[in-house]
Design a protein that fits this description.
5-stranded mixed beta sheet; 24 strands; binds ligand EPZ; about 25% strand; 4-stranded mixed beta sheet; disordered N terminus; alpha+beta; about 30% helix
Amino acid sequence: MQTKGVNMTPVSPGPYREAPPCEGLCRSCRAEGCGKKEEAGRCFRIRGGRPLKGSVSVHGAKNSVLPIFAAAVLCRTPVHLARVPRLSDTGVSLRILESLGCISALSEDEAVVDPSAVTGSRIPDRLVREMRSSSVFLGSVAARTGEAYLCLPGGCELGARPIDLHLMGLRALGMTIEEKGEKLHAYHNGLKGADITLPFPSVGATENILMAAVLAKGRTVLRGAAREPEIQDLCRFLRRCGAGIVGDGGPVLYIDGVPELMGCSYAVMGDRIEAATLLIAAAVTGGEVEVRGFSPADTGAVLGVLRRMGARLRVYRDRVQLSAPHRLITPGRVDTAPFPGFPTDVQPVLSAAAALAEGETVIGENIFDSRFKHLSQLVQMGADVRIDGRTAYIRGVESLHGAGLKALDLRGGAALVTAALAAEGESRIGGLQHIERGYERLEETLSALGAEIERV
Ligand code: EPZ
């Protein structure tokens, strides 16, 4: 389908398939013809059309606790963390800490990490492959032990995911980083503060540079730093451990190195992406919810976009109450951007809401080069989508129908769940291992809001 002057690539719908009787074979796997039997409990079965209603609290933030676990390596004494989400990525982080010689324990949503005996400097390749954000251990391990070994995390479903900015900053602090194929070896004889400028406010690069600079001699100025709330949470944690950091939340961080850090007790911030996901799911199902346990200001431009779509919001210090109209209207054009812009991690879920919102929504994905993979499955549910490079044009339809679906990445999976909640009929969603990386017991949270969702 062509729009005048623009070469639009229609997203080709796969053949529509009714969700099958439950035979332990996840529909989406059979849909893909792989025939692979997903073990029981690895699919969601969702019957859509029920407005979400009620009040829920979010969990601790995945994208905050992961760098904080890495920062624990810098400390000489134990770290006690509260609001630790029970996610597969949490487990991987604890296994990395143990491989470095830390002793760790996790019970309910509390974790204790004793880094006093850190001796290791090799971040296990298999754990890096399991969780690409393990690269954030590079700076802290090298700062604490004098060296670090890491295999390049490589790309993922979202695109190339290079770490060149991480390495540029660490080298500026005095690290030698040898790259042999996929292997990195970083080492130094003492780190020295530097004046570093990031050409792009990379979250991971800011975290890695920050965690090395806190033990460097002298002052580091990090210009063009990421301003995300998770960076601010990490800085709060590090200051409580004795680090000298000012400027967090702004584009320039000033870090005055200290000889050592001591562990502390700290509660991880509420997950703003989980909160945004739940609010948008409530909005697109015509619901009325209260989402608690996070700072609404952390959601950047999300609340403004929800208001443009017709949702009525009451915003408090640590919660948002939302009531939705019968049908949302398009917010117009939404571009993802670094904080305080519209978060890229919320873009897939927004696209699911846009699929049913009156009018045409234009979404620009400016952070990752491949974050529209979920859209073809929304088309399978009846959505009207056209993609032109990093821009998606989504014309809202009156209704979506359930289908056999498969999550291909974390937030794309959340988008499929959101669409299934609002669709007519039954959907099955496989690939839950992606969703479980970032949403703790999502089916329980949604069931508590009245959704008809279960694991099969
Ligand atoms: C963090 O990833 C988050 N992950 C991502 O959340 C989030 O989408 C992203 O920040 C942006 O907010 C964690 O915190 C664990 P970046 P990160 O470095 O640090 C390019 C989720 O769904 N880049 O800000 O990898 C990069 O390719 C995940 O929870 C370089 O080119 O993000 C990307 O296009 C997904 N060179 C862009 O910058 C570098 O050295 C943003 O990357 C680093 C990044």
